[in-house]
């Protein structure tokens, strides 16, 4: 089941954007594909793509043209992720009872744009704000710490993270 991040308007309307929940078990998957399982830490960024049943991921520089997710937490089980993360990936080994879950947020860059699919058919990805051919462009305009409401966003639009008390303000780019 996909996690959902709600694009909220200060006017009281909400459009829901869902991001793929990446969940596989066995010996292969995100953590082994990037060869960094235990080395992943909060703040690391990733390029995640591919279908839900066979995601591909590589470490990427945060804010780079290829990075689309940032590690928000690394925990043992998905139910330990903050409830407001945009996505997560769980991997368990068939050889041990241990598992690892990487809790992910979109790698927003203030002033930069992401294509966020409102139909939930694909992961968000970074786009050039001036590229009129890129669908569903949203520019991050501000990140508000200690606030989980879009009411203080100049555009009136954003993603509020209730548990961790921050808001990413965005504007739709036509």
Question: Descriptors for this entry?
Answer:
seven-stranded antiparallel sheet, 13 strands, single chain, six-stranded mixed sheet, 42% strand, mainly beta, 174 residues
Order of helices and strands: EEEHEEEEEEEEEE
Order of strands, widest sheet:
2-1-12-13-11-9-10
Q: Please report the number of helical segments.
A: 1
Rg, nearest Å:
16 Å
The poorly predicted ranges are: 11-36
How many E-type strands?
13
Most strands sheet: 7 strands, antiparallel
The residue-averaged pLDDT reads 81
Tell me what the structure shows:
By secondary structure, the chain is mainly β. The protein is built from one helix and 13 strands, in the order βββαββββββββββ. The protein has one helix spanning 30-33; strands at 3-9, 14-19, 22-23, 45-49, 56-60, 69-75, 87-92, 99-106, 113-115, 125-127, 137-145, 157-161, 166-172. The radius of gyration is 16 Å and the shape is globular. Residues 11-36 have low confidence and may be disordered.
Question: What's this model, at a glance?
Answer:
By secondary structure, the chain is an all-beta fold. It contains 1 helix and 13 strands; from the N terminus they run E-E-E-H-E-E-E-E-E-E-E-E-E-E.
């Amino acid at each position: 089941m996909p996690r959902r991040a709600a694009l909220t308007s200060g006017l009281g309307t909400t459009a829901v954007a869902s991001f793929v929940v990446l969940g596989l078990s066995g010996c292969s998957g995100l953590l082994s594909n990037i060869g960094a399982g235990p080395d992943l830490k909060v703040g690391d960024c990733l390029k995640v793509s591919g279908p839900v049943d066979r995601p591909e991921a590589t470490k990427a520089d945060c804010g780079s043209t290829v990075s689309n997710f940032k590690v928000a937490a690394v925990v043992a089980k998905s139910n330990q992720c903050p409830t407001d993360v945009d996505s997560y990936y769980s991997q368990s080994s068939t050889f041990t009872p241990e598992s690892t879950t990487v809790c992910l947020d979109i790698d927003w860059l203030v002033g930069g744009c992401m294509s966020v699919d409102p139909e939930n058919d694909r992961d968000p990805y970074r786009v050039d704000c001036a590229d009129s051919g890129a669908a569903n462009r949203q520019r991050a305009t501000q990140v508000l710490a200690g606030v989980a409401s879009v009411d203080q966003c100049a555009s009136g639009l954003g993603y509020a993270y209730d548990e961790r008390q921050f808001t990413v303000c965005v504007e739709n780019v036509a």
